[in-house]
Amino acid sequence: MQDMNGKVVAVTGASSGIGEAIARRLAARGARVVLGARRTDRLERLAAEMTAAGGSAAFTSLDVTSREAMQAFVGFAGERFGRLDVLVNNAGLMPLSLIHDLKVAEWDRMIDVNLKGVLYGIAAALPVFSAQGSGHFVNISSVADRRIVSTAAVYSGTKYAVRAISDGLRQEVGPAIRVTLVAPGATESELANAISDPALRRAAIEDYRRDLLPADAIARAVAYAIGEPGDVDVNEIVVRPTAQVY
Ligand code: NDP
Prior knowledge:
Layout: E1 8-12, H1 17-28, E2 32-37, H2 40-52, E3 56-61, H3 67-81, E4 86-89, H4 104-132, E5 135-140, H5 153-173, E6 177-184, H6 198-208, H7 215-227, E7 236-239
Helix pairs in contact: 1-7, 3-4, 4-5
The structure holds NADPH dihydro-nicotinamide-adenine-dinucleotide phosphate (NDP).
């Protein structure tokens, strides 16, 4: 199904999990996809596979915690494909911990990647979208953007903020630019690897992450939002495994 009509879509955090699945699905549906992440060896393999399958893909190194790097990423999309239609702000990490344990460096990291990374993405792409008279932000948040559980307070804080910023952005940008928030529940990926406490990591993998969605379930939601006509703004999609209560 080639319904993306050559749209140029840049995906942050495309080297694994949900970002990789989004890139694969959109390329298979006719988008020209720009992949960004720090692990460029993985991006190179992914871009080669997508191209061999008849898709169109380019990749570049990206650290979303650098405003300059985000700007260069958006600029790279323009150089390679002449425009940018969609920015998927997907990069994120979830090092769960109790606040009491004071893993302050991990709090900083979540704020830098999950929150400031999204803001830098907006800062980089908004002028391009405004000049083009069209564009679409897809921000990947989490069910933690509306539900707080113990050990996820700071992670939730970053995702609540992404949800708030997404809706504020939607209200301000006017009719030419679309804003979609996609909030996944437990999904197959490498997300739990960042949990530094071994007991919490085991618990996250064995309990919370027992009934996992395939990452492509989130990619399908993203493809749906992008594939709607330009005057249809799909604002929020929450996708959980059917078995997930919270
Ligand atoms: P993964 O750990 O598999 O993927 C995270 C991606 O983010 C990787 O590609 C990683 O690439 C990238 N990333 C991390 N830090 C940076 C950085 N500084 N600059 C650029 N890229 C970075 O996890 P998921 O696929 O699950 O995570 C994707 C998003 O989905 C996150 O925002 C997460 O919060 C959200 N989410 C995931 C859920 C789940 O259950 N899986 C549930 C709810 C939300 P690299 O290391 O190569 O830079």
